[in-house]
Amino acid sequence: MESTTVVVQGKGTNPKTTLYVGGLEETVTDAVLHAAFIPFGDIKDVSIPLDHASGKHRGFGFVEYEDKEDSETAIDNMNDSELFGRVLKVNYAQPAKIKGGEKGWSHQAVWADADRYLEELEADQELTEYEKQQKAKAAAELEADQELTEYKKQQQAKAAAEETAG
Of the spans 12-16, 60-64, 101-105, which averages the highest pLDDT? Predict the structure, then answer.
């Protein structure tokens, strides 16, 4: 039987082998994260993204295993566990969504999203106009109901006056 590799955008080659590890203490390094997760199977890659402004990591990282079963075992054992005094959240990593298509924003003209923006703006305006029309229609129906109720009261009062006079 032939095996198939699932290729997705973002971190890793298979979404079921790459784990998101959140809640990392600021002194945790790639080596520490690797050491914490190696008991569950062969690790392909470990990374902790850095904040470009501060140079420190942002409290999360990724661990990619060779096998899906190893990643499942790691989730079962490490989710809600403690590392350096912090409780970890371990889940399957979501594929990164690159804005602007495959090549990112730097390869896309500023006006490339203009058509989509204008369509959304037009749809919002149409929705607002429709809501105004519905409110006006509801107000007109309410006014008509009130006029009808008032007319019926006048007719009843007139009938009662004629009955007492007659």
Answer: 60-64
Q: Which residue has the higher pLDDT, 13 or 79?
A: 79
Cβ contacts of 50-59, under 8 Å, gap ≥ 24: 56/26, 57/24, 57/26, 57/28, 59/22, 59/23, 59/24, 59/26
Ramachandran area for residue 120 (φ above 0: left; ψ -120 to 50: alpha; else beta): alpha
| Confidence (pLDDT) at 164 | 85
Which residues are CB-contacts of 9 (< 8 A; sequence separation ≥ 6)?
95, 96, 97, 98, 102
Q: Angle at which helices 30-37 and 68-78 pack, to 10 degrees?
A: 100
- Which tokens go with 50? 């850095």
Q: What is the mean pLDDT of residues 74-98?
A: 88
What is the token pair recorded at 77? 């054992």
Which pair of structure tokens corresponds to residue 119?
């369509």
Residues written for the chain: 166
Predicted local confidence at residue 105, as pLDDT: 54
> In angstroms, rounded to a whole number, what is the distance separating the alpha carbons of residues 92 and 58?
18
Residue 62 belongs to what H/E stretch? strand 60-65
